[in-house]
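1st attempt posting a full record on here, be nice pls
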Amino acid sequence: MVEAKWLNADAHAARLNGAALQQSLLAQGEAWYELVVERCPHLFADVAVFISPVQLQQMQGVIAAVERVVNNEKWIIENGQLETEHLKPGTENGKLKTGPSGVFYGYDFHLNSDGAHLIEINTNAGGAFLNALLLDSQRDVDLPGVAASEADLERVFIAMFRREWQLQRGDAALTCIAIVDQMPEQQYLYPEFLLAQRLFERAGIHVCIADPAEFKSRDGGLYVGEQQIDLVYNRLTDFTLQQHPVLLHAYLEGSVVLTPNPAHYACYADKRNLARLTDVDELRELGVNDDDIATLQSGIPHTFVVQPDLEVSLWADRKQLFFKPYSGYGSRGAYRGEKLTRRVFGEILQSGYIAQKLAAPGEHRVSDEESLKYDVRCYVYDGKIQLVAARLYQGQTTNFRTPGGGFAPVRVAGQSDAMAGNL
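the predicted structure (as tokens):
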């Protein structure tokens, strides 16, 4: 059995079938295909990425440990992370006791010779529907290893959204979903919104794609025009909804099911949580067991909150650090320390940042002359991995601007390939 690292080093071992992918894209309609080609020319990579069974185990272990900590009764509200006015009724002490679990958490990892390293958690991670389409397009392609995915992702995704609804509404019928983002038609991943809309409608659920400004609250419900919304699939990057009071009010009063929601963000995706998850003293105070502490210490690069009084040491150590804003997303405002100017560094000291020890991304050779970096995203629901995908790129962060880069299917290769079936 060929090991993952050798497959990633071979530019010719894992080429995807471009014609099969194009056929799957065209099957979504010519207008949709042209939108993808025009707006997202580097959305999909040319190759698959391979991980070892050990790396998969490591990622599963880190995710499980994080889930146990976040659902610990002592994961308390502090440092402004989970303000009580943003809590859904029924949540207490930072633990999500009722309501939805939150769809499509993205646990993002860098994989290298030192293992799997969780670099961040996102609670509205994009790309799952697109990666499901990519996987399906390659189902008849003879690639090494085993797909790191649950079977029948369309069924899995529909069941997840129905579960989110049932957690708050029981046996009532889910009839209408709103996919919500700011100016959705202008978003880079708008093609994914359309893909999701079609998937839901095949399951008999009406879907509208809406800007939050279209929401109106009346008669105890949330509406877009004359259509009452049952569930909002939230793709907004205003994570606390402070800029969208109508949606925030509907969420707080329980007149709509919102997933993911501000409480999910505060418990998982605020970057300060990475500092808490690597703070041994705090973990012990929370009652976290020694095995989980060891897993988190080895699986998350050491992270801490930037403070002005750390200026001298931070500047001295900057080449070993990556700086991210508390509420950052899509690599906005993120800086690799070695590239910092004094001016930007001064702004970081005053602007709400965490510093994280660098963990090098993996590399995949895509031609005889070129290698691309990659990270690995685990799409997780209720603590379980549904799908593992990679993003290939050049430069500091993933950007979907790299020829030959973009989303790539992930396959488990090496000893005990069948472990991928454990997803």
